[in-house]
Automatic annotation (TrEMBL):
Source organism phylogeny: Eukaryota, Viridiplantae, Streptophyta, Embryophyta, Tracheophyta
Transmembrane segments annotated in the record for this chain: 51-71
GO annotation terms (biological process): photosystem II repair
One GO CC term on file: chloroplast
InterPro entries according to UniProt: DUF5351, HSP_DnaJ_Cys-rich_dom_sf
Protein name: Protein SPA, chloroplastic
Keywords: Membrane, Transmembrane, Transmembrane helix
Gene Ontology molecular function: any one: protein disulfide isomerase activity
Species in which this protein is naturally found: Phaseolus vulgaris (Kidney bean)
Pfam annotation, one family: DUF5351
PANTHER family documented for this protein: PLASTID TRANSCRIPTIONALLY ACTIVE PROTEIN, PROTEIN DISULFIDE-ISOMERASE LQY1, CHLOROPLASTIC
């Protein structure tokens, strides 16, 4: 069986090697001389998807670091400014109207048969108002992080 010139055996070539691999002759006692230089690895060939993936990774790391740094700077700047915003729930008074007695100090209960019982409100002790739970009676709207209670569970 002879091969025609158009049909030849494929040559194997690696893109990582500088020169194509050569077939070795089969010899039992053949001593191969040491190569003068070893094959070198070529520079990485990056396709478009790899470049996009690396770019997205770098941007993600930058955003992941940048956003917390930005918020820390905003918190530090806000702490330097004096807070003068009046409390929204109590309108800056520091007290809220009792929601059970609606500020009267007395609670009216209908017993039936047209009878009503009036008693002192147990929520506000008959005062009609309570200390604002948002500003703790100061009348100044607390900042977001000031409103949170950080408790150590240990």
């Amino acid at each position: 069986m002879t091969l025609s010139p158009s049909l030849s055996l494929p040559k194997f070539h690696s893109s990582f090697l500088c020169c194509p691999l050569k077939s070795k002759p089969l010899a039992t006692n053949f001593v191969q001389p040491k190569p003068s230089s070893y094959p070198r690895i070529r520079a990485l060939e990056l396709d478009q998807n790899t470049v996009v993936a690396i770019s997205v990774g770098l941007v993600s790391v930058a955003v992941g670091i940048g956003i917390p740094v930005f918020y820390e700077n905003q918190i530090d700047n806000a702490a330097k400014r004096e807070n003068t915003q009046p409390c929204f729930p109590c309108s800056g008074s520091g007290a809220q109207k009792c929601r059970f007695c609606l500020g009267s100090g007395n609670v009216t209960v209908e017993l039936g048969g047209g009878e009503n019982e009036v008693s002192r409100c147990i929520n506000c002790d008959g005062v009609g108002s309570l200390t604002c739970t948002t500003c703790q009676g100061s009348g100044i709207q607390p900042r977001y992080l000031d409103r949170r209670e950080f408790k150590d569970d240990d």
